[in-house]
Design goal:
The complex is a heterodimer of chains A (365) and B (355).
Chain A: E1 7-11, E2 23-29, E3 32-39, H1 47-51, H2 56-64, H3 71-86, H4 92-120, H5 124-145, H6 167-189, H7 193-199, H8 207-213, H9 218-221, H10 229-232, H11 253-277, E4 296-304, E5 307-315, E6 323-327, H12 329-334, H13 337-341, H14 346-356, H15 360-363
Antiparallel strand pairs in A: 1-2, 2-3, 4-5, 5-6
Chain B: H1 3-41, H2 57-67, H3 78-96, E1 107-109, E2 112-114, H4 124-132, H5 135-145, H6 149-171, H7 174-180, H8 185-195, H9 204-217, H10 229-232, H11 242-267, H12 295-318, H13 324-354
Antiparallel strand pairs in B: 1-2
Helix pairs in contact in B: 1-2, 1-11, 1-12, 2-11, 3-4, 3-5, 3-11, 5-6, 6-9, 6-13, 7-8, 7-13, 9-11, 9-13, 11-12
Classes of the chains: A mainly alpha (365), B mainly alpha (355).
């Protein structure tokens, strides 16, 4: 008689849809996934340990290289954590510029997510449209800090540079043109029957499961959980802005798509308000050249594009941290992957990896 | 050489060589046109370095594929692995032998007459369907012989896809056969001329089903599941390199041309210009009919085929990829019932009109 044999298949570490060096060992019954083993560590660089041998200034470029799609947030989380540990006050202008660049970074990061996620599902054109707008943002970042990917944009206590002349006008121009461009992506996807078929009801992660797994960011909010650190534990000057936290209802891939699309609109709202309120003044607070935080520890979180990005620092009063640990959202969110793809088809695996929006630099620290 | 030998061997052979040459050239340049059109849709640059506007790029690509290392996986079934691309490409080219590229008159060369097509057989359409479905065997064998899991999955998908779409593919043209009363490709075009009607109007449902099934048959987006680079890396041809890989691509593009040619012939009047029976619109022949009455037909056939191919490329630039089960659902629950409905509807109308 016929007998069904399970097939082990390795997806990754080199695979077009694993968004870096992720390796999934899938057990397939035909095309149905019956078991998944997520294997990570192919990019591991021991950054946390390395940081313990550097002084506080020298650590910042290492944070750029964690989540290289949203390096601005890694910078922000780190410098704010050290500032909290030291009790440093950051000038208002610097805080506003941080918010503007960080929210633009969220849009840039979501554009990479949207482009690659759509590409995973076969919609190639969206990828190029997204990168068209991301290019404008990278130009803005380059004008601001000289780098296009690993920014090293902030300093403990403020900013190393003010924005260059005419930069805010360029940001205003982007704020003006982006909504129309975003409509183009939506035209290609939001009501597309194939897109809906590929994303609705796919990779469901219910609120209670998401909380159990520690999932944060858009993946949690798409499950209807109103948890955005900018509102729940406000930091920087976020309480001064009006913005909504988009929530989903069905906890599926389509809802996560809608939530991130709306988040881009809300980020634009924040940027617009921050530009209006942008004060003049200093960009650097009073910080000693040789940073030696007092003995103690701090855990500081910011709302990154992928979720809760945390920095835990233990100081023994020296110029180097005694212990340094990061809570990277990609790493935590990735835990939910086997649960989300159990019983689904191979094609859904790539859709779910895309919807989790992982960055392997953020997973393998 | 005797007269019979020339008529039955030399002329058909020459015609085959011409069609092979032109089709291969057309495929090469279709890859360039595809890249140009997609680049236009996706706001990026297409090939521009090799030759003016990149027009020599296909030749450079061809040379590159020829000189690339030909790798066969160690534990692959070497015979089948080599045979598979050939099995894929042969039926695709064979199908071209039945396409009437033009009509309206014979050509004369050295005193011998021949038509602007290789063969006009009375079961042309049926033969075309039979031939076009053979290419899938190459894909299945290639996927299986690679001794690798992604190609294996691609091959299995391909088999299922063939079963799902072959049926509506066949059913969808029955309406055309009912209207024209013949299965000869030339006969169907002539029937459209006599009816003063291209069949896309009365057979819009048949056209829709035929085209969608055609896209599925040729493994193009949104139905490129046997290949599915995002899921199966490259599916059935993951392990193929160099010319063997190029053969699969060649087959895919020739199949696209064949499907576009059949669509043109069955639904858009083949080589006929718009309103072919209205003498006042004779200027639509561009004056070429004064040189030879068959010449305008080539132009119109080429234009219509290109338009259908453009839609193929347009789909690729617009749609995401179906999931495997969704593709099967579409085939079994939508395409087959629709194609059967078309047969019933056409039959009823033909009966009513005949009375």
């Amino acid at each position: 008689m016929f007998r069904t044999e399970m097939m082990d298949i390795n997806m990754g570490p080199q695979h077009p849809s694993t968004h870096g060096v992720l390796r999934l060992k899938l057990v397939l019954d035909g095309e149905t996934v019956t078991d998944t083993d997520v294997m990570i560590g192919y990019l591991h660089r021991g950054v946390e340990k390395l940081c313990e041998s550097k002084n506080y200034h020298m650590i910042e470029p290492y944070t750029d290289r964690l989540d290289y799609v949203a390096a601005m947030y890694e910078n922000l989380g780190y410098v704010e954590a050290v500032e909290k540990l030291m009790g440093v006050t950051v000038p208002e202008r610097a805080e506003y510029i941080r918010v503007i660049t960080a929210e633009l970074q969220r849009i840039a990061s979501h554009l990479v997510w949207l482009g690659t996620h759509a590409l995973d599902i076969g919609a190639m054109t969206v990828f190029f449209y997204c990168f068209r707008e991301r290019e404008i943002l990278l130009d803005l970042f380059e004008a601001f800090c000289g780098a296009r990917l690993t920014y090293n944009a902030y300093r403990i206590g403020g900013l190393p540079w003010d924005v260059p002349p005419g930069w805010t006008d360029r940001v205003r121009h982007f704020v003006k043109i982006f909504p129309e461009r975003q409509k183009e992506y939506a035209t290609l996807l939001t009501k597309n029957r194939i897109w809906i078929g590929r994303t609705k009801g796919v990779g469901i992660l219910k609120a209670e499961d998401a909380i159990d797994f520690g999932v944060t960011g858009p993946c949690l909010r798409a499950a209807g959980v109103d948890y955005d650190l900018r509102k729940v534990h406000p930091y920087s000057v976020y309480p001064r802005f009006n913005f909504d936290v988009p929530l989903g209802e069905n906890s599926d891939t389509y809802d996560r798509y809608l939530v991130r699309m709306e988040e881009m609109r809300q980020s634009l709202r924040i940027v617009e308000q921050a530009l209006e309120q942008l004060p003049a003044g200093d960009i650097m607070g009073k910080v000693p050249k040789r940073i030696k935080p007092p003995v103690g520890e701090v855990y500081h979180v910011v709302e990154g594009p992928r979720g809760e990005l945390g920095f835990y620092i233990v100081s023994q009063g020296e110029d180097k941290p005694y212990r340094m640990r990061f809570r990277s959202p990609s790493f935590v969110n990735l835990q939910a992957l086997p649960h989300m793809i159990q019983g689904s088809l191979v094609a859904d695996v790539v859709a779910v990896i895309g919807t989790l929006d992982i960055v392997l630099g953020d997973v393998d620290r | 050489m005797s007269d019979a030998l020339v008529r039955n061997l030399a002329i058909p052979l020459a015609q085959v060589l011409v069609v092979l040459g032109v089709a291969s050239g057309a495929v090469a340049y279709m890859t360039l046109i595809e890249r140009k059109i997609l680049a236009f849709m996706q706001l990026r640059l297409s090939p521009r370095r090799v030759g003016p506007h990149g027009i020599l790029q296909p030749i450079a690509d061809g040379i590159k594929l020829l000189i690339k290392e030909d790798i066969t996986p160690t534990r692959a079934d070497k015979l089948l692995f080599t045979l598979a691309p050939i099995l894929t490409v042969l039926p695709a080219f064979t199908a071209l032998s039945l396409i009437p590229f033009s009509g309206g008159g014979k050509f004369t060369l050295f005193g011998y007459e021949f038509f602007p097509w290789i063969a006009d057989v009375n079961v042309g359409v049926v033969f075309l369907l039979a031939i076009s479905s053979l290419g899938i065997y190459g894909i299945m064998l290639g996927g299986w012989a690679s001794n690798s899991k992604y190609p294996m999955l691609g091959a299995l998908r391909s088999a299922a896809q063939m079963v799902s779409y072959e049926v509506p593919f066949g059913f969808s043209i029955i309406g055309v056969l009912m209207l024209s009363g013949t299965a000869s490709m030339v006969g169907i075009v002539e029937a459209q001329r006599q009816a003063h009607l291209w069949y896309f109007a009365p057979q819009c449902l048949g056209l829709f089903v035929f085209f969608v099934s055609g896209v599925a048959e040729t493994n193009r987006l949104p139905f490129d599941l046997p290949e599915a680079e995002a899921e199966l890396v490259a599916g059935f041809h993951t392990e193929y390199t160099g010319m063997k890989f190029a053969f699969f691509m060649l087959a895919e593009y020739v199949s696209m041309m064949v499907i576009a040619s059949i669509v043109t012939t069955l639904f858009f009047g083949g080589w006929l210009r718009p309103f072919p029976n209205v003498a006042a619109l004779g200027w639509l022949n561009f004056g070429l009919d004064h040189l030879h009455p068959a010449l305008p037909g080539f132009v119109w056939f080429g234009l219509k085929t290109f338009l259908v191919l453009f839609v193929y490329l347009w789909l690729r630039g617009t749609f995401p990829r179906y999931r495997y089960d969704q593709l099967m659902n579409l085939g079994w629950f939508w395409m087959i019932p629709l194609s059967i409905a078309n047969v019933v509807l056409t039959g009823a109308v033909v009966l009513l009109v005949a009375r």
